[in-house]
Structure to design on (149 residues):
């Protein structure tokens, strides 16, 4: 999985970084559909576990299309905000077994036994600094346990 990020990334917000990264275009579409552009462009700081396009494509058939429908904006918002922690958390801050509260309200679990995992998603690229936080690219869309699809 080849991902390139601008070396001036720290001058861009999390949203601007995602918009400029082809492999995150589905995430950008989802953030726009959920009305979260302004929030994720605000001062923060935020930590975003950003699923790749491939991660969204690997959701069960029909789930992404269902989430992107206007009548399911609340479910989409829950999924997206489950990928956001309301603090800047660098990879060096992570401890095996730690849990982090997400903006959505549920917690994600950190597993450092075989690489770095957030729940069951592998971190493909860590510590991409933005002006309002940090992005960690993950290979799977993580779903909040409280969400019923």
């Amino acid at each position: 999985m080849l991902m390139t990020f601008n070396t001036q990334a720290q001058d861009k917000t999390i949203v601007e970084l995602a918009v400029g990264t082809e492999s995150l275009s589905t995430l950008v579409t989802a953030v726009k559909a959920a009305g979260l552009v302004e929030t994720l462009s605000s001062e923060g700081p935020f930590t975003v576990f950003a699923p790749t396009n491939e991660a969204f494509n690997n959701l069960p058939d029909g789930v992404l299309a269902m989430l992107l429908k206007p009548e399911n904006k609340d479910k989409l918002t829950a999924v997206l905000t489950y990928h956001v922690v309301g603090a800047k958390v660098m990879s060096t801050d992570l401890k095996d077994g730690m849990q982090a509260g997400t903006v959505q309200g549920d917690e994600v679990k950190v597993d450092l036994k075989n690489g770095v995992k957030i729940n069951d998603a592998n971190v493909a690229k860590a510590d991409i600094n933005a002006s309002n936080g940090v992005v960690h690219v993950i290979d799977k869309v993580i779903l909040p346990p409280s969400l019923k699809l």
The CA atoms of residues 54 and 139 lie 7 Å apart. The chain is about 25% helix and 25% strand. The beta strands are 46-51, 84-85, 99-101, 107-111, 117-118, 121-130, 133-138. The longest strand covers residues 121-130.
